[in-house]
Amino acid sequence: MATRIFLGLGTAPVCRRALVGERHASTVRHPNPNPNPKPSPLDAPTLHENIYTFPNLLTVSRILACPVLAWAILEGSWPLATGLLAYAGVTDWLDGWVARRWGMRSVLGTILDPAADKALMTTLVVTLAMKGLLPVPLAVIILGRDVLLSISAFYWRYTSLPPPKTFARYWDFSIPSAEVNPTEISKINTALQLLLMGVTTVSPLIAYDISMPLRVLQWTVAGTTIWSGLGYLFANNSVRLVGRPPKKP
Fold first, then answer.
1. What is the pLDDT of residue 120?
2. Which residues contact 6 (CB under 8 A, 6 or more apart)?
3. What's the angle, vertex CA 183, arms to CA 177 and CA 187, rounded to 5?
4. Could you report the per-residue pLDDT of 4-23, keeping only the tens digit for each?
5. CATH architecture of the region 51-241
6. Averaged pLDDT, 172-185
7. In whole angstroms, what is the distance from residue 152 CA to residue 171 CA?
8. What is the pTM of this model?
9. Residue 107 in contact with residue 153, Cβ under 8 Å?
10. What is the pLDDT of residues 145-154, one digit of tens each?
11. pLDDT > 90? residue 69
């Protein structure tokens, strides 16, 4: 037995076991009603990658060469235009080879490479059409497809960006979100478009009449351009969200 002292009332017997029980009850921890709380999107880790690679540098150099190429075509400096077009073709092959050979692939590279191709193609299409060397309807088909694909790229970037979706994070390409995988028909179309633009660019330097082969090539490019545009819209694996397995065909 033990005693408790009450102010002004003297003492009262208290069971020692009850005292122990009170002390024990005061130290009991109640279980967490939510043992597995859902982490906040702000606490989720964000993937970053190295974007300062040699292949990406080559790709950016192709983009920077486009204004010079446009000036050369509009001024009729065909040797310079041909040289810049050859440089673009070599670096387009080289950046992909280096990325595969030395493991320098990046999600930004999958975005920059087609963007550089589109910048080059847009420069050639607009300037050659302005010089009267490329039919305007074909120029509209090529540019229209590229505009639609660019809009879809902005959409996929926003929907696949890990939260929080902010303006700064949207333009931070070290945060990978969606990877663009070119389709086979798109690769063929790009090669044919570059062939057409290359032949058209050097045609003023050729002494022979090549108008008929050019016309056949123009119709072929028109068909592959439409086909490849539809392929991006309906192909299962043309766009893959980072961190998710590719869609099954």
1. 92
2. 12
3. 115
4. 444 444 444 544 454 445 45
5. Up-down Bundle (1.20)
6. 68
7. 16
8. 0.64
9. no
10. 888 877 877 7
11. yes
Rounded Cα distance, 196 and 217, in Å:
7
Q: Which of 18, 14, 19 is nearest to 1 (CA)?
A: 14
Helices (H), 181-235: 184-202, 211-234
For 166, the token pair is 């902010």
Tell me the backbone φ, ψ of residue 207, rounded to 5 degrees.
-80, -15
Using an 8 Å Cβ cutoff, are 131 and 73 in contact? Answer: yes
Q: Return the pLDDT at 101.
A: 85
Q: Hey, how many other C-beta atoms are within 10 angstroms of the C-beta on 148? A: 13
What's 203's DSSP letter? G
| DSSP letter (8 states) at residue 239 | E
Question: Whose structure tokens read 């024990």?
Answer: 24
Q: Name the DSSP class of 172.
A: -
Choose among 98, 110, 101, 91: nearest CA to 186. Answer: 110
Closest CA to 190 of 126, 86, 120: 120
Q: How far apart are CA 239 and CA 118, in angstroms?
A: 17
Contact 81, 200 (CB under 8 A): no
Please give the full DSSP string across 27-57, using - where no structure is assigned.
HPPPPPS-SSPPPPGGGS---------HHHH
